[in-house]
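Narrative progress, year one. The postdoctoral researcher (J.K.) led the effort to move from monomer predictions toward full complexes, under supervision of the PI. The following entry was the first complex the group processed end to end, covering 948 residues in total.
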Amino acid sequence: MSAIASISQRLSRRILRISFLVFLLAIVVVAIFSYIAIREEVKTTATKSVDNVILEVEKSLTEVQTVVEILSGQEKRYAQKEVADLISSVVNGSELITSCALAFEPFKGYNNSFKCMPLVLWLPQADTLEFKQLGDLNYDYRTLDWYQIPRLLGKSVWSEPSYDSEGTGKIVTTYSKPLYDRKGEFIGVLKTDVDLEWLNEIISEMKPYANSYMTVIGRNAAFISHPDKDKILRETIFSIAEAEEIPMLKTIGMRMLSGEENFVKVKNGLNGYYGAYAPFQNGWSALMVCSFKDMFKSLNDIVKYLLVVVVAGLVTLYFASRKTIRRVTAPLTEFTYTAMNISRGFFNAALPEVDSDDEIKHLHDSLMYLQLSINRYIKELKASTASNERYESELNIARQIQLNMVSTDFPESEDFDLHATVSPAKEVGGDLYDFFVKDRWLNIAIGDVSGKGVPAALYMAILRYAYRFIANMGFPLKDVMKTINKNVSEGNNTGMFATMFVARINLDTLEMEYCNGGHNPIVVIRPDGRAEFLKAKSNIAVGLFPEFEYEEEKLRLERGCRLILYTDGITEAEARDFSQYGEERIIGFASSVPSDMKSADVTASLVASVGEFTGDNDQNDDITVLTVKL
Amino acid sequence: MKKTVLFAFALLVSISSGFSQKVNFLVNWEPQAQFAGYYVALDKGFYAEAGLEVDMKHWSPNAAGSPLDALSTGMADIATSMLLQGFIETVNNNLDIANIFLSSQRSAMILVSHSDLTNVDLKKVTGSRVGRWKSGFGQEADMLAKKYGMNWEWIYFNSGVNLFISKAIDATLCYSFSEFIDLKMAMGDIPENNVVRFANIGYDFPQDALFANRTFLETKRSVVDKFLQASRKGWIYAASHEEETLDIVMKYIKANNYHKNRIQQKLMLEEILKLQINPETGKRDFAPLKASTFNKMKNESSSIGLISGTIKYEDFVR
């Protein structure tokens, strides 16, 4: 059941993931195109707002300029009455003008004094004009910007806005016109103050987005208008850039001051803005700031809604697809029970009925075929198992017979200490050893039949009895080997052969006669512990050439000498890294054998040393060892 | 019992107020970070700790006369001034004042031009309109102009930077801690090639100084010493607590209803603190005016007729 649920969950999740990616991609595409569209819309709106403000403000400023230029353009006499008429008419000329004054150069005014500055103020509450004389000693207008700049530049200028001198908190800008007498000599400046309250009103109306705002900076980069009143005439665009560490704002400010117009993006930490700016004719510049938050609010909302819809849709899709998959895969549950019954041994368990012609039907047919195959296989297996059991039983009997062929009844003698062991790699093996004492001669032999298993075992049995029979007759060893070789070679159609080493030792003189038929060199350990391989002539193995003439050799041994005879199961035993035990290790082992060690212990130690060397590796050849100490 | 406690408290108050020494302190410009150390000393209670009751007043740049005149006549006990300005006024007007402290070790005077001054021989720049303060600072420029025979037309202004920005003048004098920062805040950037620093061309007269009314100084030397000690403490505190100092400065600016922004004051404070570092020791040690600097100031002023009389170092620096 859990497997079925897992399939439906996995498939449902996969569908969910793919669907999510598809929806996400769709949302991203929609968002990108919407972003581009919104950006263009904002650009148009912001730019238009800036243009409209500039148009409207310049209309007002031009009105003031026109009044001043026309009214002052004709007058060349500056007697008290004419001056009073001039500045009064200027104040009356435009509703934007709050006051007008004519500041004279020293002794150029109608009163011929050092300072002369008649002023006309419009008093809106009284709806009347007030005439004042400001040229007293404490008011040195000649060092003020509105006087100095037009005087030095020789042309009318708009001064940078400032708070009015009356301390009302109103921001005023001044249009100043230098005046000259009939001789063209500079005589003073006609100063016209304009209250900029209306500028803030115009600008505050320009608010296309909830948090967008417009600001105007003067030629000195100071804010003339700003939604944050504390910034007006107190901060410049560069002080904001410096304080808030927005280098881009500094660049924008410099471009604004140089009269450029543009639409730019500004990042300030997590907040982002778009700004459209353009210059006024008098050097001021207007900047419309639109926050990303406002601009993309609708887009963010749409994306949020889309995400909610997508998530809800995906959840629905997940459960619907899971249900459908479960229904489609329901027969799998019954198949699972059937499979479980089969695994428990009920190979003929009933399969569910399937009407469809799809993968489920294929599964049904496959399981049915599986049942048939299993039944057939089991039948064959039973027959095969019975046969193997018989074979193994016979093989065990053969093993016992073979082990009985080699003597394990090691004699206890004062003349020698002998022990041997054989360990077949399979149930039966091809190694052999033998020993017997006749007429004070100790006869010993060891052999290794080519191949393994039953054929080698049979061959070994022949050799064992041939050796015992022929050697017992007292012939020279070369004849013993020749006779054995002739007997096993003739009629040998199997191609099998065996290496053999035979020796006889006179227990009184310790003279050893020996003949080696292609067998591994035996080890001789001298009484002083020195171990060496016995030098022997290289005769061939028995069973190959019936007429081969064997040679025998002699060696005088000493009391205390020890012989170790072994088969190649010792030297060719392999470790995990395929290295072999080898002859050097045998010599090493022999050199370490204590002189008083029993032969049984020597035999066991050598076999154990080989076992330690091969570790977990299976024994791949028969192992036989025979040791004798004189 | 209650009456006894009240009487003892009243006695204590009267005794303690009796020990408090009043100091009328006049600052020669409107509130700004140029005087940060004094605001800190006042606000953090360093003057009060010294047993002083300091009454700090600001001199309006539009006011007639000079703050040092007011100091000389006893309207104030201690006043800030530009050192060179104070020196010239002391000699010419025979003011009864003495220099008691240097809060700057370097000159802050700068000439800023609309054009690149690299490789320009100032001696050959004649007929230029150059702005300077109506209130009288900038005598270093007189020395320079006189020395090289420059035929500059001085255009006097009250304050601000609009005259320069409008290009009604070719260049303007300004202080590195004040108008120069205003110019940067108004123009965005000023290339260093358009700037000549008087400290680098042989007119490195320390900028800001404290002067004391001579009678006050002679009769209340210990009060002056306490005032200077507390003022030093104020400056050292300002140097290590810039943000807190700015808070204090902005408080005084707002209280006086001036339109200055914090970043300008921050830059001004940094520059003022930089001018306090003694170029010879690399430390803020408030070293007194050196006799050699005094002599150079005197000789340069005398040679171009800026001063009509003379004064000894021992009489000027007390």
